[in-house]
Amino acid sequence: MSTSHAYEVALFGEFFAQDLPAILNRLTLHSESAHQMHAREIVFEPFDAQSQRDSGSEPILLRARKELLDPESKWMMFSYLKPESVRAYPEATVRPWATCQVVGDALTFASALGYIRRSQIYKRGYIFRRGNLVIQMFQQENSDLKTGKPIPAHVDTLWEVEVKTAAPVRNTQETPLSQSLDAVLEVQLLMKGLLDLRRQDV
């Protein structure tokens, strides 16, 4: 594994709305902070994505995220590469990622890089901080085709959970990837019986 890459270590899960109070309580109890989130996320793909797929290579997608509840919030751009193999990391998703803050408009920035917008969703829920981890718990909202504004999720919409490193981690002697793996697996253990957190290849 190259040390030049920075990685995200993550686990994922989902649950039904009726389990929200119990899961919320347990996560709040084991986190240093918790606050509400409402984020807009846009996925961009290269303008030649289809021809890349036709030639057998998977195009690298760009993602832009903006927190809507914080008026000072700026767009964050990030991109993931293919996850490391399940043989190397059977317990959690480990994938190279790069991130940068965008001054101004993310859509203009992405199009200057040769990317076009593919999809947009809103995520509404909660964010928890625990050490070097961020835990997002949310329902997805679609956007109104005319206005682009979010449409509130149906009460029965599944809740999704992402437990991941808050910032890219380099696999060095000072910050071995095993530390981050241990941290996400600790959350998996804490949630056992309430929420099944697992590796996924996305």
Automatic annotation (TrEMBL):
<dbReference type="GO" id="GO:0070847">
    <property type="term" value="C:core mediator complex"/>
</dbReference>
<dbReference type="InterPro" id="IPR019095">
    <property type="entry name" value="Mediator_Med18"/>
</dbReference>
<keyword id="KW-0805">Transcription regulation</keyword>
<dbReference type="GO" id="GO:0016592">
    <property type="term" value="C:mediator complex"/>
</dbReference>
<dbReference type="GO" id="GO:0006357">
    <property type="term" value="P:regulation of transcription by RNA polymerase II"/>
</dbReference>
<keyword id="KW-0010">Activator</keyword>
<comment type="subunit">
    <text>Component of the Mediator complex.</text>
</comment>
<comment type="similarity">
    <text>Belongs to the Mediator complex subunit 18 family.</text>
</comment>
<dbReference type="GO" id="GO:0003712">
    <property type="term" value="F:transcription coregulator activity"/>
</dbReference>
<dbReference type="GO" id="GO:0006369">
    <property type="term" value="P:termination of RNA polymerase II transcription"/>
</dbReference>
<dbReference type="Pfam" id="PF09637">
    <property type="entry name" value="Med18"/>
</dbReference>
<keyword id="KW-0804">Transcription</keyword>
<protein>
    <recommendedName>
        <fullName>Mediator of RNA polymerase II transcription subunit 18</fullName>
    </recommendedName>
</protein>
<keyword id="KW-0539">Nucleus</keyword>
<comment type="function">
    <text>Component of the Mediator complex, a coactivator involved in the regulated transcription of nearly all RNA polymerase II-dependent genes. Mediator functions as a bridge to convey information from gene-specific regulatory proteins to the basal RNA polymerase II transcription machinery. Mediator is recruited to promoters by direct interactions with regulatory proteins and serves as a scaffold for the assembly of a functional preinitiation complex with RNA polymerase II and the general transcription factors.</text>
</comment>
